[in-house]
Design goal:
The complex is a heterodimer.
Chain A: H1 4-29, E1 38-51, E2 57-68, E3 77-88, E4 93-105, E5 112-118, E6 123-124, E7 134-145, E8 148-149, E9 151-161
Antiparallel strand pairs in A: 1-2, 2-5, 2-6, 3-4, 3-7, 7-9
Chain B: H1 2-44, E1 50-52, E2 67-71, E3 82-85, E4 94-104, E5 110-115, E6 139-147, H2 152-159, H3 161-177
Antiparallel strand pairs in B: 1-2, 2-6, 3-4, 3-6, 4-5
Helix pairs in contact in B: 2-3
The chains are: A alpha+beta, B alpha+beta.
Chain lengths: 167, 180
């Protein structure tokens, strides 16, 4: 019962269990945080609005995205992944979510930002339903912890509308 | 002479008994590990509830060597979720984030496009030839949590199989030589 092998085995098992327990407790501490993020998005200009060769509508737009996500960060936060999605309904699809822009916020210093950008990913429809289409711009954030449970939330901004005509 | 034979017989029977009881202990350990694994599969609803990250395509959030905990519920798949999916023709599942979702009216079937956070382009190049979207049946689970660095043991054992044999051999030696 007292050989080196048994002691090494017991030590290893115990330390792995303790490490796992510490990770779990670190993750639980994230629940104590009550975040209060804020965001604002403006569509400054629709640059291009055409039907592609495949027959799908495609939009290019310039956006201004500003947000304050500092309250999401805890000591157990490794990074916050934030993205802006255009969300709308068409006769064929009950929901379309198209990510227009995403970014990684590595630390709390970078969590308050305001950027001016064209859409990073193509705003493409399945079909050509986008003329005059009303859509929401939703800012989603996913908090990735140093260890444990990830959590996500979003802020929906309504009232956006695409042009009636191609341009 | 008779005494020596007697002693040898009694020693042999003790060793056989000991070997058998050690074999049973080993069998119990393996069986309990299997039970825990299968229970995890049941609880999380995913075929592989724990995966080890093999590439750096989701850095810096998820690094090579991290262990991901998966869960698969009937909830619809939404943009932003990190999913693990299989592509026909590839045997290793991929862990990337959903960036586009198109959900059909009434049936709820989805077309999904994914992209690794650290990749410059989306995953269309990774899908099967001619495939533009993923469907629900490609997706093994959603990532709900993770443990950093815990997966390196698996990666090392895969990349240098000799270590696997050394470990198993050492464990076997330990079990056999233990005086209990």
């Amino acid at each position: 019962m007292h050989s080196f092998g048994y002691r090494a085995n017991a030590l290893l098992t115990f330390s792995v269990m303790v490490l796992a327990l510490m990770c779990a407790m670190a993750s639980l501490s994230d629940n104590l945080n009550s975040p209060s993020p804020s965001a604002n998005v403006q569509v400054l200009k629709v640059n291009r609005f055409q039907k592609s060769t495949q027959g799908n509508d495609e939009v290019s737009m310039t956006l201004n995205i500003s947000a304050n996500l500092q309250s999401l960060f805890t000591w157990n936060t490794k990074q916050v992944f934030v993205f802006l999605a255009a969300e709308y309904e068409t006769p064929k699809n009950s929901l379309n979510q198209v990510s227009l822009w995403d970014g990684i916020i590595p630390s709390i210093e970078h969590a308050k930002f305001s950027i001016h950008t064209t859409n990073k990913y193509r705003f493409t429809d399945q079909g050509s339903n986008l003329r005059g289409k009303e859509y929401d711009l939703t800012l989603h954030w996913h908090v990735m912890p140093k260890t444990g449970k990830m959590f996500a939330d979003k802020l929906v901004m309504t009232g956006f509308r695409l042009p009636e005509e191609y341009r | 002479m008779g005494r020596i034979e007697e002693t040898m017989n009694s020693i042999k029977s003790i060793q056989i008994r000991r070997a058998l009881s050690q074999a049973i202990t080993l069998g119990i350990m393996l069986a309990s590990a299997l039970i825990v694994w299968k229970t995890l599969i049941c609880i999380t609803g995913s075929e592989s509830p724990i995966v080890v990250v093999l590439t750096g395509s989701m850095e810096p959030g998820i690094k090579k060597g991290d262990i991901l905990l998966l869960h698969m519920s009937k909830d619809p798949i939404r943009a932003g979720e990190i999913v693990v999916f299989n592509v026909e023709g590839r045997d290793i599942p991929i862990v990337h984030r959903v960036i586009k979702v198109h959900e059909l009216q009434y049936t709820g079937e989805v077309d999904v496009l994914t992209k690794g956070d650290n990749n410059p382009v989306d995953d269309i190049g990774l899908y099967a030839h001619g495939q533009l979207w993923l469907q629900r049946h490609h997706i093994l689970g959603r990532v709900v949590g993770f443990l950093p660095y815990f997966g390196w043991a698996t990666i090392i054992m895969n990349e240098k199989p000799i270590i696997k044999y050394v470990l198993v051999g050492a464990l076997g030696l330990l079990a056999v030589t233990s005086k209990d």
